[in-house]
Structure formats: structure tokens, C-alpha cells
């Protein structure tokens, strides 16, 4: 559209409305796909961390991670549903003429849902980052071992137990 205007091509109002309608359609689809993909990636990190704690004696950590995974799944699925079901039928969301039949949620509800999902995204990212840093601390400790404290050293059992959380 911008190049057409730049080179002197005129767009009539109907063509412009069609382009804006397509933009709204693709934005709605992209928002739903983004929320689902973001949720899946955070769940994947949580599952890796849960697997790393499977042989440890920290039952509370495993319950915490399982709770975070479950909450993440519900959080992002709920956000995706809000954006996917913002209008009934969904085609009303990108109908800019206002002629399409159906109803939509108030814009304030969709905006609030976006803020809540973003806050959850920040929280779950922070938790998964902190858990990964804790895990890496022990990996670095094992990598820095010398010959005296290496694999056959007396401190390896304690370090290995700590590394598995």
C-alpha cells in the first residue's frame, strides 16, 4: 500500500478497506498463534527442568515446577481463547464496515486480557530463567573441578547431588 501511494497509484476507499480488513485478520491470527507458541516454549523449558529434578530428593521443587507448567498452560491457552473468541463469529473482528452480524467483547476486556497475559509471560519467563541459572551454577562447578577434586575426588558426590537439585 505504501509503495503504491509513493509511486502515485491511487487506492479507492473500498480497496483500502479490504487491505485494512486483511491486516486486522492477520493480526488476530498472529496473536493467537503467538500466544500458543509462547506457551508451548515455556512449557518445554519447564519440562526440561522437571526432568532434571526427576532423580533428586527435592519433592517440593518438582511440585513447584509442575504447578508452573500447569499454570502456564492454562494462562496462555486462556489468553489465546480470549483473542480467538473475541467476536462471534470471528469474521466480525476484521469487518471494518460494521455490516457483519454478530457481537464482540468490549475493547477494554481484550486490552485487560493482553495486559494479564503479558504479566504472566514476564513471571513465567523470570521463573524459568532463575531455575535455569540455578541449574547452570552446578554445571559450572563441575566443569571447574581440578585433578584433586575431580571426578574421583571426595567432593564429587556432594556436588552431583546438588547438581540434580
TrEMBL record:
Residues 23-119 form the Rhodopsin domain. Keywords: Membrane, Transmembrane, Transmembrane helix. It comes from the Eukaryota. Signal peptide: none annotated. The chain crosses the membrane at residues 26-50, 62-85, 105-127. It is a multi-pass membrane protein. It is found in: Membrane. Its main location: membrane. InterPro entries: Rhodopsin_dom_fungi, SAT4-like. Pfam families: Fung_rhodopsin. Belongs to the SAT4 family. This is Rhodopsin domain-containing protein. The lineage of its organism: Eukaryota, Fungi, Dikarya, Ascomycota, Pezizomycotina.
